[in-house]
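Continuing from the previous page...

OK, I double-checked the sequence for Nitroreductase family deazaflavin-dependent oxidoreductase against my notes and this is the correct one:
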Amino acid sequence: MLFGKEHVKRYRETDGAEGHDWQGTTTLLLTTTGRRSGEERTTPLIYQRNGDDHVIVASNGGSDQPPAWYLNIEADPEVKVQVKDDKFTARARTATPEEKPALWKKMTAVWPDYNNYQKKTDRDIPVLILERTS
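Thanks. Re-ran it with the corrected sequence; updated structure tokens here:
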């Protein structure tokens, strides 16, 4: 099973031939800029399309703390994305309260554990929209 750094490595080496399809769903590579280090950090994340946009969830497995990549986005919403061999820049934003219910339903349809993660924490798990800029 691919996970973490090995997942990123194989995804990049194969333009997503290995790593895009993962445990019955699909993943993209999200690269953020570290808010303290200034270094690029890449994370494989489950995604779904919503029109031209890509949707991801900042679940962190139901932890009370958001994932580091989410904190990086709060500091700098300009991100790099790779979906299979398609590499582009995007602006990440948190879905509005009006947008979130439909997007949450879309994401839990492909990864039902998001519902379990939300039950584990009092933190409102954000759904993010990646809007392509290039």
